[in-house]
Amino acid sequence: DAGITQSPRHKVTETGTPVTLRCHQTENHRYMYWYRQDPGHGLRLIHYSYGVKDTDKGEVSDGYSVSRSKTEDFLLTLESATSSQTSVYFCAISEELAGGPRQETQYFGPGTRLLVL
Amino acid sequence: KQEVTQIPAALSVPEGENLVLNCSFTDSAIYNLQWFRQDPGKGLTSLLLIQSSQREQTSGRLNASLDKSSGRSTLYIAASQPGDSATYLCAVTGDTGTASKLTFGTGTRLQVTL
Prior knowledge:
The complex is a heterodimer.
Chain A lengths: L3 E4 L2 E4 L5 E7 L5 E8 L3 E10 L2 E4 L6 E7 L2 E6 L8 E8 L12 E2 L3 E5 L1
Parallel strand pairs in A: 2-11
Antiparallel strand pairs in A: 1-3, 3-8, 4-5, 4-9, 5-6, 7-8, 9-10, 9-11
Chain B lengths: L3 E4 L2 E5 L4 E7 L6 E7 L5 E8 L4 E4 L2 E6 L4 E6 L8 E10 L4 E5 L3 E6 L1
Parallel strand pairs in B: 2-11
Antiparallel strand pairs in B: 1-3, 3-8, 4-5, 4-9, 6-7, 7-8, 9-10, 9-11
C-alpha cells in the first residue's frame, strides 16, 4: 500500500469554525489531490497540487483552500465550516513518470469523516 | 463536462457466479480508465488501469475492457467470492492542463452471497 495517512480520521465540528485536514505521504510523489465523497455524487475533486507551493482548483473548490509547503504534506482548510461540507474527504497521490501523471493511477488515503453540526 | 455512469447501482449474486459491471462516460477524450474497489468505511484500492490505447486489462479473476469510441467499459469478475463484496468505482482520467483529473461514477455495490 502507498504510504498515505490522513488526520484526523474523524471530526465533529460546529458551523462557522475553521477546520484543517492533513494528508501526509511517504512516497515522495509530486501530485496530491483532495476529494470529497457524498452519496449520489461519487468522488469529486476539490483541489490538487502539482508541486510544492503549486496548487489549483478542482470541480468543487468553493469554501476550501489548500496549502503545500513540503512535498509530503497537503493541507485542506475549511475557512468557515458549513453543514453542506459534511462529507468524507479523501487524499490521493500520484507519481510523474515519463508519460506524465495522466498515465498512472492515483493512490488513496483512508479518508477523514467530517460532520459539521 | 465529463459524466460517468455506472449500472447497476447495486447487485447481489450467489457465490461462484460470473458477473459484469458497466461503466459509461460522455466524453471520449480520456487518457485512461480505472476501476477501484471500496470497502465500507475504507479508502479506494486500484484494481485495473486501462490506457486509452488499450482494449483490455486482466488481473487474476478480473478483466476490464474499454471501448473508448463508444464511451463504455466493463469489469468482468469470474467465479465471484464473498470477499468480492464491495463497491466498485469506475473513473476516467481527463486533463486539467497541470495534472490528471479523475471523474468518478457513483459506483456499483456488489454483494456476493453464500
